[in-house]
Amino acid sequence: MTKVLAVLYPDPVDGFPPKYVRDDVPKITKYPDGSTVPTPESIDFKPGELLGSVSGALGLKKYLESKGVEYVVTSDKEGPDSVFEKELPTADVVISQPFWPAYLTAERIEKAKNLKLAITAGIGSDHVDLNAANEHNITVAEVTYSNSVSVAEAEVMQLLALVRNFIPAHDIIRNGGWNIADAVAQAYDIEGMTVGIIGAGRIGRAVIERLKPFDVKLVYNQRHQLPADVEKKFGLTYYPDVHEMVKVVDAVVLNAPLYANTYHMFDDDLIATMKRGAYIVNNGRGEEVDRDAIVRALNSGQLGGYSGDVWYPQPAPEDHPWRTMPHEAMTPHMSGTTLSAQARYAAGAREILEDFLENKPIRPEYLIAEGGSLAGTGAKSYEVKKGQKSPGSGNEDN
Ligand code: NAD
Q1: 141 to each of 91, 95, 362, how far by Cα in Å?
Q2: Which of 108, 127, 205, 285 is labelled catalytic?
Q3: Is 147 labeled as catalytic in the residue annotation?
Q4: Tens digits of residue pLDDT in 288-327
Q5: Is the CB of residue 69 less than 8 Å from the CB of residue 1?
Q6: Domains contained in the chain, CATH given
Q7: Among 64, 319, 322, 328, which one is least packed by beta carbons within 10 Å?
């Protein structure tokens, strides 16, 4: 009997389902590049429902049971006595969301003798040790594009929240105050600022499109230069070297994947070369920045603000310094798991499972690794070196 093990975040504290404030979500059929949203044979949920928590079960229960598949869903993922650790050795498929990652370290993969497929319900498969997955011929797939626009919308909001000093100003009225001088002492307009995008892929492109009407100067850094017509349309300047780019920007929006190349990209040295008071928005992955370097730079005033929803590890411990540092606009990892996004990536997980169970090929754009090497989108996004543990996957030496 095939066994699918899903590690999902816990249900709402007030119980499941939550009281929905809207009756539907807009129907999206195509992504901005023309590719289609997931196309499973059918779905057993209503778009807009909470699917990412344990009781939501990604809307897969009915389907998997109808196929005679054992479907185990848990949020208990930490430590040797966790349900995840206990069920893993006999699981054929693991499903996890980056918001509540089931870290698949090399050691865990070693124990998972039956594991054939690791599905990321969302985008970003750094929580899987990709090298170990390749060595064990495990397919890794994610639901490409499913929440890229969701994240881009959040990043624009986060950037504005920092520059306009929204959260401290909001705290003033929440606490009964009205001191306008305090509210504006760190508030600026974004108009005319130079914003640097790191990783101009699906999220980065959507951020660029959304920021353009704010009359900012847009610069970008990524592995490959964008076509000349795209650069012209958005007035983009390409910086092949991130070190050169950060010197000229007022703010950085970071959405590159996490791998050896981007691990701790923003450390004390790089941050020291930025303009005093620059802002960083990072919804890429927590480990793309040095945790303590961010805290130091906010305390010294070298950074004007930091906003992100990605941490390491996740869930973040209660004493994580990002919870209490100054000039932050932090949230738990949520930008890619709006109810709107969940409908797409749950349908994508279903599509991948249908293909897997029927021995059909998985859409190439969903593939991260297959047949012992990086594949599809994974070959464009990540790099792995034999014998090297991937950052983000829960290895102790990260
Ligand atoms: P994408 O593959 O379309 O884009 C990634 C881009 O990063 C590519 O254009 C690639 O060329 C570029 N890149 C790779 N290495 C780089 C480097 N060293 N320096 C600069 N750029 C580099 O993927 P996407 O949909 O835009 O998602 C990107 C990442 O965002 C994911 O891998 C994930 O880590 C993160 N993400 C976060 C959330 C969230 O909820 N916070 C949700 C989705 C994705």
Answers
A1: 16, 10, 8
A2: 285
A3: yes
A4: 999 999 999 999 999 999 999 999 999 999 999 999 999 9
A5: yes
A6: 3-146+337-375 (3.40.50.720), 148-330 (3.40.50.720)
A7: 319
